[in-house]
Amino acid sequence: MLRAYTALHALGHAHSVECWRAGELVGGVYGVAVGQVFFGESMFSRISNASKVALAVLCRQLVEWGYTLMDCQMESAHLSSLGAQEISRPDFTRLLTTLCHTPPAGHAWSQPAP
Q: What is the C-alpha to C-alpha distance for residues 75 and 104, in angstroms, rounded to an integer?
């Protein structure tokens, strides 16, 4: 997995949003970007709500860059409380067919998010 994500990162597809406090990594989210879709792979928190902050920052940035879909993989009460909505498999497949081939804004991922 480490080699795969390192290769995806080198190709410009694997990304993370991290929360730091006093020099310590306290939470974050990572995943893979393809076209206008971000496939969220995992979130973690070492302090309460740190992953929620990272996800909120990521979502705001994805909207700014013209992303249309973030795949959260599994429905959960936690993700639903943050605004995630389940979509049907046919709708998901249809969206992927288009959005994975549509580039985001030209400046996406070219600089760290604020």
A: 25
Q: What is the pLDDT of residues 100-112, one digit of tens each?
A: 999 887 788 876 6
pTM score of the predicted model: 0.88
| Cβ neighbours, 10 Å, residue 76 | 11
12 Cβ neighbours under 8 A, 6+ residues apart: 33, 109
Let me know how long the chain is.
114
Q: Which domains does the chain have, with CATH numbers?
A: 2-99 (3.40.630.70)
**β-bridge partners, 32:** 14, 39
Tokens of 107: 């400046």
